[in-house]
Amino acid sequence: xxxxxxxxxxxxxxxxxxxxxxxxxxxxxxxxxxxxxxxxxxxxxxxxxxxxxxxxxxxxxxxxxxxxxxxxxxxxxxxxxxxxxxxxxxxxxxxxxxxxxxxxxxxxxxxxxxxxxxxxxxxxxxxxxxxxxxxxxxxxxxxxxxxxxxxxxxxxxxxxxxxxxxxxxxxxxxxxxxxxxxxxxxxxxxxxxxxxxxxxxxxxxxxxxxxxxxxxxxxxxxxxxxxxxxxxxxxxxxxxxxxxxxxxxxxxxxxxxxxxxxxxxxxxxxxxxxxxxxxxxxxxxxxxxxxxxxxxxxxxxxxxxxxxxxx
Length: 311
Prior knowledge:
This protein is an all-beta fold. Helices cover 0% and strands 57% of the residues. Strands 17, 18, 19, 20 and 21 form a five-stranded antiparallel beta sheet that branches. It has a four-stranded antiparallel beta sheet with strand order 1-2-3-4, with no helix packed on it. A four-stranded antiparallel beta sheet has the order 5-6-7-8, with no helix packed on it. A hairpin with a 5-residue loop joins strand 7 and strand 8.
């Protein structure tokens, strides 16, 4: 593929029989810190995975963090102001998960965790610490057997719930990511089937009380999504801020790679879709203004990791 970069290093991190990473962040020392799931049987018991790799690819830390005795895992990891990390994920038994947030120090030692119990199937796919020290968790909440809503929980700096709200229409709407914007406002990215045509991507901006400021959906007649919604897929972080205050979203359109950019009020600036099957897991704007996209590329019977640069 054009613009494929050279692989600098490729490391396998093995802790148990089933380890999978769902999110990575760079720490203040330039190390890469991962979260995910780790399990010995991958059936109904798992723990949160925490790993740290240095810039040369040496594995510094790998550990399992136990929350409950059942099915726990991390979907996102973000830095916190004290040098540690907040992990958002799920805890509970399979198909009866709850929103879970886990605070760890810089080495992955558990400091505290909170589980927000509810009816079946609630998962937090992103967690961030806001600049005022409060936390926001975003994910999905099953309302009835037929559909899910976007769920956002705001907590204080110790994980005590401040508010808990759902957003969406009469079909599946699933919150995937959140970033802080200006003046204590937040932008959430979601997959939506309630708005648009048969599966779109939605951006919505809220204030710190969870009140909607604006909401837009993006896509066309094809199925567009942030990932395949099969109840078992792994979430990537699909929303990043650009230096000029806009937003960059990556996902899939008709099964292929899809990236689009908006301005600060959610208006579409450009839209790029490629025929690489498998969608885009992450996109970031580089210093030179170009955009780097990463994801899995299917070719024949194999799946490779690809990196593409567009300008």
